[in-house]
Amino acid sequence: MDIGFIGLGNMGKAIAANLIKGGHKLTVWNRSPAPAQELTKLGAAIAASPAEAFANEIVISMLADDKALRSSLIDNGVLAGARKDVLHINMATISVALAEELTELHAKLGQGYVAAPVFGRPDAAAAAKLNVVVAGPRRLVDRAQPLFDLVGQKTWRMGDEPHRANAAKLAGNFMIGAAIEAMAEATTLAAGYGVPAADLLDLLTNTLFAAPVYKGYGGMIAADRYEPAAFKLSLGLKDLRLALAAGDQANVPLPMASLVRDNLLAAVANGEGDLDFAALARVAQRQAGQRKA
Known about the structure:
Largest sheet: 6 strands, parallel
Number of strands: 9
Shape: globular
CATH topology of the largest domain: Rossmann fold
CATH class of the largest domain: Alpha Beta
Oligomer: single chain
Number of domains: 2
Number of helices: 13
Strand content: 5-15%
Strand order of the largest sheet: 3-2-1-4-5-6
Radius of gyration: 20 Å
Helix content: 40-55%
């Protein structure tokens, strides 16, 4: 297939590389040129603009947030000027409200639209081991399925309304934040009695909480090592804000999400936004007097 790809951060670049390795011809665009130039070594062509990327039959976008997507594809008329038979696959984590807006806009323009956010960190993306969460009309998802097979270990279908995939992704990222918060508080409690975080998490992540999220983020908390960041804490804050906005929209109270959001905000205020999401643990440590501000 001829595919346009927009947004080449750590995740997008790895996904694009796997599509090229799978035999597809990619035309890529990124706001900063270096990642696009790296992909030319694998055979990608560089688009001069998002509009040029949308000249392809399928376009995948993996932009950082609502603002980046809106400025790159909507406000400048890229979608309005795109070909009518295009299938746009948005793999970014965006708000439910924007997902609904995009669905209506593509329908109005006569274009196909599928939401396909992913679970997995950059190493999983590079290894094509992502979990792809997909929603959209069945015929369009079926058309895109061979691409999902190249980048993920499993595709999880959430129905025919694209915003459902975004709601599921935000719910999942909220649970990740809650898990980190729980580990932060638990390890801080144990440390108050002389039990090292590494010892507690070695016990718990190999017994009661033997799951990837606990093991991965728990390992960073145990080592007090949050760089390099695979998923920045500031992006976790963005996603918790989106989860709370989705809760407001559906009249769903999320008191734990509010707590996690506030602690993430405290971490950002302490200059930790560029550290890994797991650095949320530092907030509980500061509150207990176990870490200096």
